Structure formats: structure tokens, C-alpha cells
């Protein structure tokens, strides 16, 4: 009985190990499949024109398809729209988020800070489609038009909790002696925070900002109700504007434009993953 | 000093954590049956490392390698399955480790449940009672057997861990500084317990407390920088050590 | 800068968050009140009619609540066989090694992929497979959406669980090994019981993510507004009906969609709150 029992236990032990390795390895299959599919299909659509020209109208695309040519145009309008809205959102979200993060890290024991901290979690967990609705109510309805401003407000609301969290966490782990040394030298509170704490925490905060940008750059649902989309390349902030994820959604729904879908996805994917990897690299460097 | 029919024999045992650095160097020693043998030495001398090798604990860490032979009743355990060896060679650690998710009752029986051995209810009750009586914990906990073991005092927790190891009826009990985290009263309690237990089990105990080794052990080893410097009857070693380094350690000139 | 002014600036920045959160609840409630008062709160939740013929408009949220619950629970079910091994791989078997680092990078990258790209992949790669296997004729539906959703939440569930598994003290594990247990037995009797509440809470947070996921589901669920009658049927979730119909909605329908949004907001808020509270507790133990 003993040896039989022993053999069985060792078998189960090995089986579990093999299963864990197998299923864990299997998790990388979807990643490779997605990267492979987007790269493989998107590669052939990628060209200089693709990132410098605007989206063709459905009519132009139909003509090209009928003539057996590849459809003209690209996603320049989307790239401009995405960058414009990201820039506007970031310019506001970074100072507000960093200051709020500092407040939370500095007032850990206050009830109000705990409350804000809890609400930050709440906002971070809010589905993006709801951010879309709320920005529609707050910005689109009063302005009576979809606009780049509305889109960037939605992105701002989504970036804010991410920046707050990363700032809070980074400032929290700074040694207390740092602040004390600054104050001991006669620095004012604001000087110590702005000139000593924030520069020291810069790596962590910057990582957080990059991750926040990479998280919202691919967001589609909130932009559908705010930026709407536009087939022209424009810089106006008070008019509907395109964005790369919105274009993908448009191509997905319009059979004539389907040729452009993978190129646009490839562009978005590269952008997001580059930001991600850069952020992680900086984080690693900063930690060591 | 001659040991007839030793239960454990270390033969040229070497342990290394990394290439070219040995934590234990060519240790040769035999451990007598039903006795208490103490291993002493300053911290970092390899005493715990040697002890853990006798339970094959090093196998959990792929970077540790063990050379030589460790014989248990004449068979080299380094060639045996760790789960078999560990059932016959129990171990008690420096910090008491009652399993926090199990009751006192289940903690005593953990060796069985972990090994997938089914017991009847009466068997279980009998094992729990005898094991706890063995470590004189029964009277203190018999009414709270369903409470978590983590609520007990440090000394009680350590006795629970000893009971847990004894429940499997091992041949040898390895103890790695079992009282270093306890107060003097709990320590005294455990020392008395060990002396009682040696009829049932052979005890090999690592300690940095010279007084403890002197009080409870028949034989003592002194290790220094990974080497076994001296191994003799405790009575002899504590009164008349042969080696200068042993003398320096025992007189407090080396810590 | 004057310290007093600086402190006021910090405080004002912190006020932005309560302002936004309060505003969300306020605005959603105001704009949803039309639909809720028109149909009645419980009527709205329990009705399965979604009819926008002018004159006999009737909006009920039940099909979408059902669709959300079905996709989320299925996704959770499909996610566990992958996330659990990943967390054991990273937190126990290969803890602190290069292998664990590689797998963590893989899951991090999976978490970084935008949901619209998951949707595309599901639509162009997974859907044909589902059709070829004769699981459902149209390929899209609750099952398809849940499969892709499962992949999307694996990183969230796995990385947080791994953290808790890593924290199981090696003292305890050694104690169990010293009694002759195999690694599998240590995992079952020590690691899981000790890390259990933490692992559980990471799955709650993963559910929170799955509930609100929008684009992927919208692209894969088939977008029909009646009650789903099987797991392979098409349907809509709360998030996908909003994504689908919000753009062209007005009047009562707009209000009904916002009411669904409010409901979704409350559900995710509650789930996330439970998850966070459990995590805090698990961290203390």
C-alpha cells in the first residue's frame, strides 16, 4: 500500500507541475496570435501614405475597389485627432493628478484624504462607456456639438485616477528623512515638495503618466459619444474630430474601408505597446 | 567516543550555496539512537545548513547542492525520495509555524492530511490526544481544539509544532534552534520535554545556547566555519575541550 | 510660493475627484429619472421589452442585465483555468526567476492591448472557428464574447493572485514539507488556504473589469435586444447596448440608456468596493 500510495502522490505532484506549466504557457498563445494577426495583415497596408493622408470617403473607396486598386488614403486625420486630444487631456490631467496624488500621500491619516482615495478607486473602476455618457451630458449637450474638447475631457477623466495613484504611491515611499532634511535647511513646505520630493519621485510619476496615456490611447467607447469622428484632417478643437480607435471602429462597420482596418490596428498596437514597454523600462531603472 | 549502531551517519557531507563556496565542509559524524545530540557554533558556522540537509530541506532550493552521504539506518537518504525521508525525519523550526488556516486539532493531524492518509475519527482523536499529551499541551488546549493554533502563546505554538512532527512517529527529530524565539520559562518547559521524549525519538538539536546544550544533550558537536571541529560527550566537551577554538567559544571569547 | 496658498492648491486638486464622482452620480440620476419615472424602477429592471416604435415605446433592462451576467460569469469560468496556473507559475513554482519575469511580461502586454483590437481579433479569427465548429451559426454571441473577455481578464486576475501567493511565508511551506508533503499537497493545503482570500478578491476585481468591458463585447455579442435563450445566443450587455444605440438616441430612449448606464455604474462600484475591502483585509492577515 505504501509504495503504491507514494507513487500516486508523486504522480499527482508531477501532473500538477506539468499542467501549471502547460496552461501558463498557453496564455501566451492569444498574445502571439493577436500580435501575429495584426502584424501579418497590417504590414502590407502600412506605407508612408497611410500615415500622411486622410481617410477616403466610402465613395472613393468603392471606386478604387471596383477598379481593382488598393484604396487610397490613410489615417492621418485619426493620428492628428488622437495626438491633439491626448495632448489636451495630458496637459490638464498631469498637474491636477500630481497635485492630488501629493495631497493624498501627505495627508494619509485624514478622513477626507481617505474618502478621496476611495473615490479615486471608484473612478478608476468606472467603465469607460459611462465616462463617455457623462462627458456627453457635461460637454456635448451644452456645446451643442461633438468636439475634440469633449473627447479630451473624457480622456482626462480616465487618466486622472491613474496619475493620482502612481503619484501617491511614489511619493509615499520616499524616505521621510528627505522631507525633514529639506525643512531643516529652512525650505518652505511648497519648496520642499516642488523642488525636492517631486524631482526625486519623477521616475515613478513619469512612468505613471506614460501608462495612463497608453491606457486611454486605445479607448473607443468614450470617444464615440464625444469626439464622434471625422474624415477630414483638422485641428479645430470645437468640431468633431477623428481618432485612431474611432477609425478602426468605422472601418470595422464599413465594408468598403475594411482594407484599412489592420494597418490602423497595427499603428495603434505598436504605439500602445511601445509606451507600455518604455514605461516599464523606466520604472525598472528608477527602482534600482 | 564510540557510537554503536548509529541512527544517522554523516559521511563527508559538504553543502554549498554557490560554486566554490562551501557552507559545510566534509563533516563526518554518527548520531546515537535515543539520545539528544546538540550542534553548536557561532552563527554562520553551517550548523543549521547541516541539520536541514538531514531533512532534505535543501532540495526545495535548486541552488543548494549537497555532497557526501547521509545515512539513515544505513541507507543514504540523498538517494531516497524526500517525501519518504521527511516522514521518518521530522523537523521543528526556529520560529513556531502552526498552519494559520487550521485548528489546533487539524494542526496535529496535518502530517496525515498533507500526506493524504485517511484516518477514522477514533484514530484521529487518539493521535491528537497522545501527541498533545506527549508534549504536555493536552491539558492546556483540550477545550479549545477547534480554535486556530495561532492564538496560542509562542511556547505553546512550538510545542504544538513538536506534537505535529511526533504524530507521524518519526525516527529522528531535527530541531533548528527551537527555543531561540521563546521566553526563558517556555524554553525551560521545552527542554524538560525533550529530555522526556528521547525514549521515543532521537533528537538532533541546533542551538547557540551553550547552557541548553550542556543541560539536555548527551553529546555535542562544535562547528566553526563549516567544519566539524569537535564532537564528544557533552560532559567531556564542556569540561575539557580538546580544540582551542572550542575552548574559545565555550569560554565566550568567540561568539 | 506662500505655503498657505500651496496647501490650498493641493486641497483644490484633491477636490476635483469628489467633484467628478458626485457629478457622475448626480447627472446620471437626473438624466435617467425620465425613463425610471415613466416605467417605474422595478418595472424597468424586470421588463424584457426593448421597443422603440414611436407611440408605444417600451424599454426594459432585463435582457441586458442578463446578457451582462452571462458574459461575465462565463468569462470568469473560462479565465480560471489559465489565470490560476499563471499565478502559481509566477508566485510559487518559478517565483523570482527569469521564467516568471517572462510570463509576467506576457500578461502585462495582454493587459495593454486595446479592447477594440481584441474585438477585431475575436471577430476575424475566433468567430470563424466557432462557426466552423458548428457551435453557433452566426459565430457571434454570448459565448464568443465571453471567450475573448476571458483572455482580457486573465492578466488582472493572475497578476494580483500571484502577489498573494508570493506572500505565503516560506516558514509555513517548509513546515509542511518537513512533514513529508509534496509540492502539490503544500499548494493545496497551505498555499491556497493562506492566500485564499487574496486570490478570491483578485477574481472579484477581474469581474469588475469584465462587467464594464464595452468594445470587445459590442463587436462580438451579436447585438440583439431580446432575452438570450442559450449561451450561444446573440444578445447585448449593458455596456454594449449603450455603445450601440447611444449615438442615435434621444428622448425617452436616451434616458433609458442613461438609466442602464447608472445601473452599470452602481454594480461595478459595488463589486469594486467589495474587492478592495477584501484585498485590504487579505493584506493585513
Question: Can I get a quick summary?
Answer:
The complex is a heterotrimer of chains A (288), B (255) and C (285). Chain A has helices spanning 2-26, 28-43, 48-52, 58-66, 76-106, 111-125, 128-143, 148-172, 176-184, 189-200, 202-217, 221-224, 244-253, 261-287.
Description:
- The complex is a heterotrimer of chains A (288), B (255) and C (285).
- Chain A has one domain: MetI-like fold, CATH 1.10.3720.10.
- Helix content of chain A is 76%, strand content 0%.
- The radius of gyration of chain A is 24 Å and the shape is globular.
- In chain B, the strands form 2 sheets. Chain B has a 6-stranded mixed sheet with strand order 6-7-8-3-9-10, sandwiched between helices. Chain B has a 4-stranded antiparallel sheet with strand order 2-1-4-5.
- In chain B, α5 packs across α7 and α7 packs parallel to α8.
- In chain B, β9 and β10 form a beta hairpin.
- Chain B contains 11 helices and 10 strands.
- With 255 residues, chain B is α/β, with parallel strands linked by helices.
- Chain B has a single domain, classed as P-loop containing nucleotide triphosphate hydrolases (Rossmann fold).
- Chain B is 35% helix and 25% strand.
- Chain C is mainly α.
- Chain C has 2 domains: 49 residues; 223 residues, MetI-like fold, CATH 1.10.3720.
- Chain C is built from 11 helices and 2 strands.
- Chain C has a two-stranded antiparallel sheet with strand order 1-2.
- At the B-C interface, α2, α4 and α7 of B face α7 and α8 of C.
Largest sheet properties of chain A: none
Instruction: Count helical runs of chain C.
Output: 11
H-E order of chain C: HHEEHHHHHHHHH
Counting helices, strands and paired strands, the structural category of chain A is mainly alpha
Provide the residue-averaged pLDDT of chain A: 92
Query: CATH superfamily membership of the largest domain in chain C, which one?
Result: MetI-like
Domain tally of chain A: 1
Amino acid at each position: 500500500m505504501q509504495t503504491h500510495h507514494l507513487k500516486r502522490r508523486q504522480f499527482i505532484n508531477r501532473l500538477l507541475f506539468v499542467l501549471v506549466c502547460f496552461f501558463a504557457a498557453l496564455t501566451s498563445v492569444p498574445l502571439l496570435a493577436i500580435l501575429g494577426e495584426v502584424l501579418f495583415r497590417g504590414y502590407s497596408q502600412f506605407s508612408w501614405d497611410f500615415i500622411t493622408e486622410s481617410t477616403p470617403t466610402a465613395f472613393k473607396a468603392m471606386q478604387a475597389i471596383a477598379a481593382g486598386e488598393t484604396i487610397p488614403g490613410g489615417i492621418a486625420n485619426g493620428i492628428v485627432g488622437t495626438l491633439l486630444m491626448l495632448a489636451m487631456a495630458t496637459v490638464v490631467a498631469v498637474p491636477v493628478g500630481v497635485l492630488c496624488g501629493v495631497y493624498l500621500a501627505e495627508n494619509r491619516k485624514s478622513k477626507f484624504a481617505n474618502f478621496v482615495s476611495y473615490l479615486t478607486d471608484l473612478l478608476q473602476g468606472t467603465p469607460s462607456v459611462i465616462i463617455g455618457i457623462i462627458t456627453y451630458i457635461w460637454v456635448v449637450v451644452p456645446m451643442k456639438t461633438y468636439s475634440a474638447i469633449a473627447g479630451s475631457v473624457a480622456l482626462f477623466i480616465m487618466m486622472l485616477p491613474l496619475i493620482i495613484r502612481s503619484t501617491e504611491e511614489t511619493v509615499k515611499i520616499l524616505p521621510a528623512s528627505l522631507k525633514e532634511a529639506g525643512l531643516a535647511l529652512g525650505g518652505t513646505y511648497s519648496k520642499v515638495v516642488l523642488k525636492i520630493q517631486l524631482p526625486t519621485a519623477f521616475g515613478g510619476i513619469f512612468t505613471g503618466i506614460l501608462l495612463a496615456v497608453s491606457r486611454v490611447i486605445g479607448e473607443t467607447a468614450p470617444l464615440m459619444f464625444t469626439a464622434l469622428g471625422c474624415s477630414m484632417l483638422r485641428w479645430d478643437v470645437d468640431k468633431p474630430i477623428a481618432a485612431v480607435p474611432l477609425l478602426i471602429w468605422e472601418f470595422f462597420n464599413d465594408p468598403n474601408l475594411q482594407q484599412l482596418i489592420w494597418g490602423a490596428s497595427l499603428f495603434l498596437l505598436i504605439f500602445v505597446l511601445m509606451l507600455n514597454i518604455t514605461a516599464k523600462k523606466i520604472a525598472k531603472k528608477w527602482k534600482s | 567516543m564510540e557510537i554503536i549502531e548509529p541512527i544517522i551517519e554523516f559521511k563527508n557531507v559538504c553543502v554549498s550555496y554557490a560554486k566554490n563556496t562551501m557552507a559545510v565542509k566534509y563533516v563526518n559524524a554518527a548520531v546515537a539512537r535515543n539520545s539528544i545530540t546538540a550542534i553548536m557554533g557561532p552563527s554562520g558556522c553551517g550548523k543549521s545548513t547541516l541539520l536541514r540537509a538531514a531533512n532534505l530541506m535543501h532540495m526545495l532550493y535548486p541552488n543548494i547542492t549537497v555532497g557526501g552521504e547521509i545515512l539513515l539506518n544505513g541507507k543514504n537518504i540523498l538517494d531516497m525520495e524526500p517525501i519518504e525521508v521527511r516522514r521518518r525525519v521530522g523537523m521543528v523550526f526556529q520560529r513556531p509555524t502552526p498552519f494559520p488556516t487550521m485548528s489546533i486539532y487539524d494542526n496535529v493531524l496535518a502530517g496525515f492530511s498533507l500526506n493524504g492518509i485517511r484516518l477514522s475519527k477514533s484514530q484521529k482523536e487518539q493521535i491528537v490526544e497522545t501527541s498533545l499529551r506527549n508534549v504536555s499541551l493536552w491539558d492546556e488546549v483540550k477545550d479549545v481544539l477547534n480554535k486556530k493554533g495561532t492564538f496560542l502563546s509562542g511556547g505553546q505554538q512550538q510545542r504544538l509544532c513538536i506534537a505535529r512532527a511526533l504524530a507521524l512517529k518519526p525516527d529522528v527529530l531535527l530541531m533548528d534552534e527551537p527555543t531561540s524565539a521563546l521566553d526563558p520559562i517556555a524554553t525551560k518547559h521545552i527542554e524538560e520535554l525533550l529530555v522526556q521524549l528521547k525514549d521515543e525519538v532521537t533528537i538532533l538539536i541546533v542551538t547557540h545556547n551553550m547552557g541548553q546544550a550542556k543541560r539536555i544533550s548527551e553529546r555535542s558537536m562544535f562547528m566553526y566555519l563549516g567544519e566539524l571541529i569537535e564532537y564528544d560527550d557533552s560532559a567531556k566537551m564542556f569540561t575539557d575541550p580538546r580544540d582551542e577554538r572550542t575552548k574559545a567559544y565555550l569560554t565566550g571569547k568567540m561568539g | 510660493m506662500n505655503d498657505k496658498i500651496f496647501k490650498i492648491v493641493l486641497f483644490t486638486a484633491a477636490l476635483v475627484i469628489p467633484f467628478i464622482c458626485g457629478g457622475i452620480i448626480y447627472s446620471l440620476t437626473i438624466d435617467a429619472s425620465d425613463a425610471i419615472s415613466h416605467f417605474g424602477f422595478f418595472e424597468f429592471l424586470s421588463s424584457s421589452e426593448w421597443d422603440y416604435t414611436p407611440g408605444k415605446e417600451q424599454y426594459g433592462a432585463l435582457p441586458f442585465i442578463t446578457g451582462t451576467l452571462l458574459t461575465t460569469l462565463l468569462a470568469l469560468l473560462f479565465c480560471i483555468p489559465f489565470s490560476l496556473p499563471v499565478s502559481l507559475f509566477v508566485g510559487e513554482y518559478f517565483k523570482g526567476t527569469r521564467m516568471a519575469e517572462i510570463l509576467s511580461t506576457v500578461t502585462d502586454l495582454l493587459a495593454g492591448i486595446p479592447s477594440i483590437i481584441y474585438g477585431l481579433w475575436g471577430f476575424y479569427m475566433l468567430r470563424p472557428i466557432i462557426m466552423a465548429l458548428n457551435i453557433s451559426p452566426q459565430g457571434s454571441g454570448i459565448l464568443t464574447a465571453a471567450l475573448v473577455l476571458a483572455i482580457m481578464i486573465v492578466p488582472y486576475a493572475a497578476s494580483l493572485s500571484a502577489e498573494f501567493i508570493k506572500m505565503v511565508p516560506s516558514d509555513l511551506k517548509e513546515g509542511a514539507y518537513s512533514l513529508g508533503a509534496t509540492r502539490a499537497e503544500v499548494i493545496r493545503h497551505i498555499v491556497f488556504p493562506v492566500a485564499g482570500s487574496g486570490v478570491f478578491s483578485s477574481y472579484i476585481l477581474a469581474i469588475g473589469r469584465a462587467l464594464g468591458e464595452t468594445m470587445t463585447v459590442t463587436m462580438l455579442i451579436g447585438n440583439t435586444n431580446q432575452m438570450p435563450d442559450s449561451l450561444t445566443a446573440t444578445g447585448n450587455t449593458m455596456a454594449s447596448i449603450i455603445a450601440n444605440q447611444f449615438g442615435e438616441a434621444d428622448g425617452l430612449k436616451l434616458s433609458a440608456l442613461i438609466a442602464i448606464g447608472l445601473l452599470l455604474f452602481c454594480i461595478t462600484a459595488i463589486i469594486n468596493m467589495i474587492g478592495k475591502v477584501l484585498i485590504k483585509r487579505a493584506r493585513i492577515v
